[in-house]
Amino acid sequence: MYILGIHIGHDSTAVLFKDGVFLEAMSEERLSRQKKHAGFPHLTVAYLKEKYQVNTFTEVALVGVELDDTIMITKEDNEAIRKNGISVSNHFLRAVGVKFPLLGSLFNLRDWVLVKVLSFGIKAKVDKFLRTQFPEATITRVEHHLAHAWSVIPFLPDLNKKYLVLTMDGAGDDLSGSVNILDQGQISRKHVTSIHSSVGLLYCAIVDILGMSRNEHEFKVMGLAPYAKVSAGEKVYEKLKKLVWFDHQDLSFKSAINLDRATPYLLAHNFFWHRFDSLAYGIQKLTEESIKEMTLVAINKYQISDVAVAGGVFMNVKANQYVREMSAVKSFSVTPSCGDESLAFGAVMSRYNTLMNGDLSKVKQIDNLYLGSEYSDVEIKKEIDKYDFPNPVKVEYFAPDAAVTIEHKAAEILANNGVVGRFKGRAEWGARALGNRSILANPKSLDNVKLINEMIKGRDFWMPFATSMLYERRNDYLVNAENYLAPYMAITFNTKPLAHTELIAALHPYDLTSRPQMVEKKTNPEYHNLISHFESLTGVGGILNTSFNLHGEPNVENPYDALRTFSLSGLNYLAIGNYLVYKT
């Protein structure tokens, strides 16, 4: 029996599950080419139907967030919400409303009216749409934070253990967090935090003030934080922690203001006078301390020291590091790419649990995220032959069983400080490129950071690249990495002196932390072979890895995307399948 899991909203995603196994997962942005695509995953559902020859689904589990349900129907609904300003408020006018409460009340009334007008008849419209799409299906809606909690299940090594499951994000179904217990495969919710006391939304407000895009550039703020002067950053932190705190009795966050309207409040109270890096420091420290406090209080109350987390706030890899390093935490698991794109996994697990009467013994643990599409050499060569390259290129084929494979050739190019786009095997699901749709470079040369940014990425100067390293070499480079597998770039580590020379281009430029992908031979043998051959040539057991995309676009999905990105960028080498395409 198939179960189709769907998340509707930003980072729209669909996953396919059958008899305990997740067969496929893809976010709609990969096919629509719209980054952080919002809406119903039409293209992904059609792709799954065609690939698995499923004419109709009998079980559909989905997660949708309030008005976000409207944007799954048509583009016009999406534009109506954007134009009427429900999703993005005029923060400066609202800052005036903070100073003058009567005016603020009028703004709130306007929002209430707009919501009522735009949402009129939505439920009937949505239900009709779903019934049209899935006429023979039992359709199950799963509440947002329950789906986040259930999403940890397929990524845990032992479902017979008892886990403390924590969720935190900006908002979902009027909540921003929860404390749960996972016992014998069953999730029981203990405590929740309202949307109005959301640490995640306060983080978004700082993103707004810095002139960045919320729900997209939070990672930039995290990367900027270490550059701040501590004394200046502490002043921001002291201000922010008066706005939100963790209640030890209720095990939930409380706030002095409605954090759903945090941006106008911060503007009205002159937070913009603080330096940009001080603001980043303040909100990053608040987030780290808040998560640590929540974790410790929950551990002490329930006497459970195995911790699993999910939700967009836990995309904050630095905060995850500090939780993992807490002495009270025995084991720590992060749902990979745990933003809203992971909700589809949780929706499936919740529904499967019901169908199986609580028996999750057949659920197969996901040990890698290569859950997307795959293309044969025949399909790749067909795309190469018909692609209209703007500049001359040469194409070479490397047989998989030859003495020199495409992995050997790519490693040689990297060893000579070339930059390679790699497209091979099944696509990674999630926000992080894990080698199969990646741009790779020699991590020993700092010049490669500038080179990659100039040729394709255009990243802000303070932003680090990540490392793909051999699992066998983790203890040579990382502090406190013993007995810990980090295959998904979901957590940072402090680094040892050897990393400061051999992996310097793939570390944070200021604090020298690493956000590693530990590569095991059993999960991706070809990528492991590439890094191993690079090691044999250079002595370095890791490579710089970043996503394979043009600035502002999603990661590449198919051979055409890879060829287009290669052609429009300064990349000179593309290892695509077993072919090497290079500019002459």
From TrEMBL:
Q: What is the annotated signal peptide range for this record?
A: none
Q: Which GO terms describe its molecular function?
A: catalytic activity
| Residues of the Carbamoyltransferase domain | 3-348
Q: Pfam families per the record? A: Carbam_trans_C (PF16861), Carbam_trans_N (PF02543)
Instruction: Pinpoint the Carbamoyltransferase C-terminal domain residues.
Output: 411-583
Q: Which family does it belong to?
A: Belongs to the NodU/CmcH family.
Name the UniProt record assigns to this protein: Carbamoyl transferase
Name the species this protein comes from: Candidatus Roizmanbacteria bacterium CG10_big_fil_rev_8_21_14_0_10_39_12
